[in-house]
């Protein structure tokens, strides 16, 4: 449908690639820098400090230390949002003005860069690696990723305690987050065509069924964590769609939170057994996340580019259908209801909803 397609020229996919800068700032033309030429003549060893500086320049994005600090803090905000179901790190990226740069940096990542590793012992190989790194925004991604990781480690510990000690209230909070996110996102898309309406119905049914079946069937193992990590991290870059929400749907949210907290505890205590047990899961989630960014995220990007309204209708309806999960968890963790408990549950849901609405008011338009 034409009304669901963006301007095909908007992505600039057919535009010629920009000239790539060498590590010294010049435009790459295959000329080996004089400082590297001596590396292969007579076996002169590479100056270690010079190599570190060259690498730092290669991954740098022209940002000042102050700007890198700002990027790190934006990553902290994104990680805090991504750690709770219903709030999207992509929305935070949009609010803080780095969303387009984030998407561009991710799509510019080239896994074929690994093929240059066997040639790093030569000057030409190192020069080519610097040219390739300079074409990517790695400095930005590293600073942002460190911020996200800092927040995930911190917030996951809070969520672990909340899930264990205040299960019903925590899931009521999640309910408010998810419901408000769905309401906000439904306001951004029209269901006025049969395709969009069908996508919404399918999303609603899939969300309702999966939160009942998958959470009961899917085991909590590193293999499943690999798959879940790929799906969740891909969703984290979408404004309005929460990666933690998808982990909740897949029945892996608590597993991820406990594993990350256990891993950090084992790391601090130098507990080798704990590092093996929890580290395996954390690494599985991490590998899945990297693979997801390089594969699934591109599929989602294509769907949003060519069938944006129908895709958003499906994703938002998936969230509505998945509200079954927090409701069931609240009922399972509560023996009997009284006025005080009901008031607490309602208040937790209202706080969660208000958080999402406040973020939406800050953005003006999250999609």
What does this entry show, briefly?
This protein has 2 domains: 19-140, no CATH class; 157-363, no CATH class. Helix content is 70%, strand content 0%.
- Helix/strand class: mainly alpha
Please tally the helical runs, counting DSSP H or I stretches of 4 or more residues: 17
**Helical content, roughly?**
55-70%
Q: Could you report the average pLDDT, rounded to the nearest whole number?
A: 75
> What integer value in Å does the Rg equal?
23 Å
Largest sheet: none
The topology string of helices and strands comes to HHHHHHHHHHHHHHHHH
Would you identify the regions where 5 or more consecutive residues have pLDDT less than 50?
A: 1-50
Strand content: under 5%
Assembly type = single chain
Overall, the morphology is: globular
| Cα end-to-end separation | 19 Å
In total, the number of strands is 0
How many structural domains can be distinguished in the coordinates? 2
